[in-house]
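#structure-requests
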Amino acid sequence: MEHFWNPYLLLFLGLTMIFIEFFVPGGVLGAAGGVVLLLSIIAFWSAGYSPLATLVYFFVVITLLITLIRFALWRINRTGSKNSILLRDDQSGYVASTYDLEMVGKEGVCGTDLKPAGKILIEGVEYQAVSEMGYIKKGTEILVLRGEGAHLIVKEKS
């Protein structure tokens, strides 16, 4: 029985497309390569091979795919290309705001009403703060308990 699609040719084509996907990202070649590998298995089965031979072919395809992926990742890691998808340098970018750890335990005064958020003054410097319990009037002495994100958590000084 003669078939138009040679399963071995489809296997080679699918693996090649997946390999190229590692160097030309976008997903199209990888997805198409996966479909071609699936067609290769179907073509092998429809060529009249026994179910056991088709199962062995399936595991050979999976083994070749895993080997190809490991080789491609190894190759990307070994080459120093600027155009690689592998990031070799540290990234700089957004860093979330944090509170000053040295402020914990310090005393200050409310610069605005804390309802429950507002501004406080510690040693003449303004900070964002949130009251631990409800409303604190402007001018009230406060104590810094801890911080969360960019805010200091404060309570009214007893």
